[in-house]
Design goal:
This protein is α+β, with helices and mostly antiparallel strands and 144 residues long. It contains five helices and six strands. The longest helix has 12 residues. It is globular, with a radius of gyration of 15 Å.
Length: 144
């Protein structure tokens, strides 16, 4: 995979747990970076977990009005209707990222992510990562 084929995405710990368990197969965003289909997402579960906990493949990215996204993805999003519309607020356009090939991984803790990426913070939304960073995450989880 090339450098644009990997990204790290920060997901609230409850939603990340739902992705890991397979209950949630669509991640919702008010905005999202441009990534090619087939990209590998490294899922960072926010504090209190504070670790990479899974990988998934982007199979589709759907931009539409929130009410249209709700009609299509309400069962795969694993959120209540109230929370869904509260999250999107007055956004005219939302994003549904369809995930497949969800693979739980041995957690890569925040300190190791910071060391591997050479940064102090985790992106609030998502960030592209290099192939080298992805391979270091792979090695970390393999040799734990």
């Amino acid at each position: 995979m090339d450098a644009e084929s990997h990204a790290m995405i920060s997901i609230h710990s409850d939603h990340a747990a739902n992705i890991v368990s397979g209950v949630k197969t669509v991640e919702l965003r008010r905005r999202f970076m441009s990534l090619p289909l087939g990209s590998r997402l490294w899922i960072y579960s926010t504090l209190p977990v504070g670790a990479l906990v899974a990988t998934a493949t982007i199979v589709a990215i759907d931009y539409d009005a929130p009410h249209q996204l709700w009609a299509r993805y309400q069962t795969e999003a694993a959120v209540s209707k109230n929370l869904f519309f509260q999250y999107f607020g007055d956004c005219e356009l939302g994003c549904a990222i369809q995930l497949d090939g969800i693979e739980p991984i041995s957690p890569v803790p925040l300190e190791s992510i910071r060391r591997i990426r050479g940064v102090d913070h985790i992106p609030q939304v998502a960030a592209k990562i290099t192939t080298l960073e992805a391979s270091q995450f792979e090695e970390f989880r393999r040799f734990r």
